[in-house]
């Protein structure tokens, strides 16, 4: 497996910011990975595991080895009357995989259609959209531990999944290279249609026989209306997580701001819509230099053309300061900042 020198990372991040890596290798199998890690030329180099680069902001060059996951393959590993266990190589494109599952009538991932990136990153931040988190369909995650080169399998119960978090996000980062992910999918669809936008779209469509395939199409349409396509406008989706606060903190805020959207979580805490907070601070649609806040979704920062990662980071910090000053709430970035 060749290791390339001084490679531009611009095509490998959806913000499309300029950055480069000293060393770069595309990994197509676990054996490939071991060969690269044993190569004396990169011994001791810091490393970064990269999928589709849709949840990363490069603010500088990466002084080390980038390992781009290109492990492919999809297989049904087990079936019973109710479920199919499907294993996908970590380098498979996420949305293509969702389409594959629907084509084979394996259900559960339909609400997660059109999320950019690769399968391998899906457990890293426990991707979620429109009322579903991937952890609900996860069975196990196969990895190679970078330090030892040994395989290590994580059952879903060991992944420490939460809202946009997992064991794979905890330090030290890049400890485990995810090689494949196994999902437990349903043979009979159980449609999740409670999310406000989804319920509204279904009502408008007045469709009598909603299927998982139709629901997935509806979700694709909602997403296209709200979120910029990285092929046209650089972005990494939501730049901040939605803050989760206690009921005690909510009460004075809700009294002062009666229109503030907030959502009760299963653990009794309250999720606040960061997009609303940012919009209230006047940021929606604002542009500073080459970057700005997306006009249709205030939670999304965009690179209009040629913005440096450091400019986008500076804008995000200014936004977070203004939200803190007005609402007393801290915003935490969702993408990994390097
Ligand atoms: P990358 O950006 O390449 O990597 C993300 C992190 O995972 C990094 O820390 C990286 O080191 C690590 N990683 C990647 N692959 C591996 C691996 N094989 N082994 C170990 N670590 C690995 N996210 C949501 O949850 N819900 C959404 O609705 C959503 N919508 C989005 C919409 C847009 C337009 C965009 C641009 C992004 C959106 N995202 C969303 C964020 C992003 O798509 C997801 O986080 C996605 O899972 C990232 O996949 P990736 O392959 O691009 O990961
Ligand atoms: N809102 C505003 N103004 C805005 C944006 C949103 O007032 O500019 C309000 C909306 O009116 C709504 C609430 O905020 O009441 C929630 O908005 P939306 O449904 O658009 O979802 P979100 O909370 O902004 C989250 C995820 C998205 C995911 C959608 C759908 C996070 C950080 N973001 O966004 O995930 O697609 O819900 O489930 O949780 C991502 O992680 O990159 C991402 C795009």
How is the largest sheet built, in terms of strand order? 6-7-12-10-11
Identify the CATH architecture of the largest domain: 2-Layer Sandwich
Q: What's the mean pLDDT score? A: 96
Q: How many beta-strand runs?
A: 20
Helix and strand pattern: EEHEEEEEHEEEEEHHEEHEEHEEEHE
Counted up, domains total: 3
Helix content: 10-25%
Features:
single chain, Uridine Diphospho-n-acetylenolpyruvylglucosamine Reductase, domain 2, 4-stranded mixed sheet, alpha+beta, 7 helices, 5-stranded antiparallel sheet, Uridine Diphospho-n-acetylenolpyruvylglucosamine Reductase, domain 1, Uridine Diphospho-n-acetylenolpyruvylglucosamine Reductase, domain 3, binds flavin-adenine dinucleotide, about 350 residues, 3 domains, binds uridine-diphosphate-2(N-acetylglucosaminyl) butyric acid, globular
Report on the structure:
This protein is 23% helix and 27% strand. The protein is an alpha+beta fold and 338 residues long. It has 3 domains: 4-69, Uridine Diphospho-n-acetylenolpyruvylglucosamine Reductase, domain 2, CATH 3.30.43; 74-186, Uridine Diphospho-n-acetylenolpyruvylglucosamine Reductase, domain 3, CATH 3.30.465; 234-337, UDP-N-acetylenolpyruvoylglucosamine reductase, C-terminal domain (Uridine Diphospho-n-acetylenolpyruvylglucosamine Reductase, domain 1, Alpha-Beta Complex), CATH 3.90.78.10. Strands 6-7-12-10-11 form a 5-stranded antiparallel beta sheet, with no helix packed on it. A hairpin with a 2-residue loop joins strand 8 and strand 9. Helix 3 (196-205) crosses helix 4 (212-226). The mean pLDDT is 96.
